[in-house]
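Reproducibility note. Readers wishing to regenerate the assembly model reported in the main text can use the exact inputs given here. Chain order matters: entities are listed in the order in which they were concatenated for prediction.
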Amino acid sequence: MTIASTPSYNLASAQDLFALTKPRVMSLVIFTAICGLLAAPGSIHPVIGFTAILAISLGAGASAALNQWYEYDIDAMMKRTANRPLPAGRMDRETALHFGVGLSAFSVLLMGLAVNWLSAAVLAFSIFFYAVVYTIWLKRSTPQNIVIGGAAGAFPPVIGWAAVTGDITIMPLLLFAIIFFWTPPHFWALALFVNSDYSKAGIPMMPVVAGRKSTRKQIAVYSLILAVCAIAPFALNMTGVIYGATAILLSIAFVVLSFRVGLSKTEDPLAMKAEKHLFSFSILYLFTLFGALVADRMIIA
Amino acid sequence: MSEIDTTKAPMSSEEQKAYQARQKHRAIIMAGLLFFLVVLFYLITFVKIGAAAS
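Running the prediction on these inputs yields the following structure tokens for the assembly.
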């Protein structure tokens, strides 16, 4: 091994290492993990609960670091990502790889030793899934990449649940399914009206590969599956009326907005009101749905 | 086995200062994180011992 007399601009700053964890994406991960943890039956000591959320956050940060380590070449081609630490030349790839692998190992060990080994195993699999299956294997090869990526983002509530109960039942799997089927309409709505550089970078995004018409149809189909998954916990008598009423109302609105997108034919991104409404509403949808799940559980408890 | 790469130009004094400032900043943050982890592991140990005892 060679130790180079590294110029100062190549010594990664603490801010750049933090940026490598994609802190904005992490906020959704933390929120859904906390909801999974609070909605689970049983109780967890606050210190152990905090440690579980910390381990999930560190695992998500590690996945993001490994993602940026692998995608430095395509990040450099897109305006939105060109200023990230690796493409901007503020950090070398080896640092990002070591940071990502080290953080992954630490997060899984922390979860296993402090919480339980089932949640640690799911956390380890979620890191592997995002970094290897999604980032390295499928992202560059299939227009269904967002669907597969959605699975990686759907693990946190399952891990939060497993941290409390030590098992995985139908309910956490439904929470997984909600995020999994929410992701395609959310991202494709955005991809329809935002002129991204994905095609320039060679990433086969659905609107580019299959066209806007096909993407709009798929958004409508996914919204129906999402509605079924979101209402299922109430229909199967696993939640109370608070969650049930919220899920039904939100899902009706989501399906209506998605079908408006499905029927839309506009090609001008500036005129894509239906897509913009759906994108904004999708964020509100997920936060409110999971919030209602926790409120329901708290009130029943 | 590590060895020093002598093929690169040495840093200027300004670069060295910036490099050391970053090193210091990272070291301070690392110290803070280690202290946080010491407290966290201390608390986890107490919770685990309490749970095992009850």
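We highlight two features of this model. Chain B touches chain A at residues 1-5, 8-11, 15-16, 18-19, 22-23, 25-26, 29, 40, 43-44, 46-48, 51 (CB under 8 Å). The mean pLDDT of chain B is 85.
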